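Protocol step 6 of 9: fold each sequence in the batch and record its structure tokens directly after the sequence line. For illustration, a two-sequence batch is reproduced in full.

Sequence one:
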Amino acid sequence: MASTSSTLTISSSSTLVDVKAPRQSAASSPQCVSLPTLPPPPVQQSQNKPWKTTAYCRKLARNVMAMATGEAPAEVAVAELPEIVKTVQEAWDKVEDKYAVSSLAVAGVVALWGSTGMISAIDRLPLIPGVLELVGIGYSGWFAYKNLVFKPDREALLEKIKVTYKDIIGSS
């Protein structure tokens, strides 16, 4: 009985092939496209995670393929705007006095920045933060005793909140 052995040879190629793109032979292609060289993958502290390198190389290959075919890469492709951005754009288009709204926004940012600086300066003083904390605790206790402990006081507080809400919003 004769024994036969067969060998299987697999050759690797460094050519990137897009399976979705139509294939053209080199003779029928009127122009040559040279692909840029790939940068080396980022140096990792531990080489125990080969899938990160593989994912990085796939991302680079996808970008190179996109550049070769003239498409925009997936990261650069224009996506649809979120709903909140559309809402803000529509609201901005409805504003009649854009200068006043812009001025108020800038003034608000400046006031926020200034108040943050003032609070951080007060916080650096040695005794002031502790004293202010005690004042806050004392006022919170007084407010709770005055308005929340007894039922008639709670009802009066709720009524006052409703009246203030109607004054601000207006009766409809």
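Sequence two, same batch, same settings:
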Amino acid sequence: MSTNVDYDCIVIGAGVQGSFTAYQLAKKNQRTLLLEQFVLPHTRGSSHGQTRIIRKAYQQDFYTHMMEECYELWAQLEREAGVKLYRQTGLLVMGPEESQGYQMIKNTLQKNKVPIEILNRDNFSQHIPNVNLALGDGAMVDITAGVLYADRALKTVQRQFEKLGGVIRDNEQVTDVKPGPVVTVTTSAGVYRAKSVVVTAGPWANRLLAHTGLQLPLTVVKINVCYWKEKVPGSYNVKQRFPCFLLTEFEETKDIYGLPSNEYPGLMKICYHGGSETNPDQRDKTTNRSDIDILQRCVACCFPGLVPEPAVVESCLYTGLGVVTVRILGGAYRVGTTQQLTPDHHFVLDCHPSHSNIVFGAGFSGHGFKFGPIIGKLLCELVLGEVPSYDLSPFRIRRFQDKTKSAL
């Protein structure tokens, strides 16, 4: 076998996770190629759009711990590039005060000494105008949270990667990945060889991993991204210091979130953290609007200053965990059954069980953008064989086997 290599590493997928991985590899003096199947920038995956929420408010300690460094890495990129990528607004968290989800977020924030402000019914409207706090709901603010400028951030990290000598090739669809001591990657435009490959292809991850004999338990869903018109312009504007928000429960659903009006003048972004399963190449054929019905009731109930009919509806793809099965095609690496659902919505960060020089990051489940800098660092560490900066056991594929065993 030829040992000639074109690159030290090839990263497949130029969304936020792949772009930060390539950037981190280039900072480590690795000759790195970043491949993207679509012409950049594009709106076909999960990393497009103008804004995302950045927060430390999580039920799990490990996410809050990771976000401590992540804030620092975002600030470092801002300084390097001279570009503003983050605006502090705070994150209003509301939900049934005695519910497990609300209490877990509160406990995690307090235990990790994250600056928060607890609001009560008497002072809520004074601090948060134009929002109705439901009877029995508690409210708190993650003070350091805010808005990430997503499109700007993605372009910035790609530009910094190229300044470090990295190569980006867009409009090149990968058609084959051949494992080996040297990995061969074939695209619609050519053939490349590298010592290592990282797959960060979002909704298309399993299509690529199939070439390596691996399939992950991933489900792709289409999210309706809705914008709601202010009845009085400026009522929910970021310039009026209106915060981002997370409603942990509404009716029978969980996790409705929103950002202050900013992207479109006079329109507030409010979405439901769920959607309909879809084929990423045919997402426009998925027309389920049940999530919009939920949002209309939520807006009418909780946000009296908004017209309870979306003015703009866009779409985004989430890729999360669907079934507790990881299998090597034609082999016996089975960890569970296809009938058992996994609800954890945690990332998958790991090396291929048969080819250690193939690394993947997947299953970011619609909450991974803010973690881009730290995901890039961790995937870079896996490529280089370094000890990961954080415990990756919540993100390894063997956790599916652990869950199955514990259920028996």
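Proceed to step 7 once all outputs are recorded. Observation for sequence two: Residues 178 and 184 are 5 Å apart (CA to CA).
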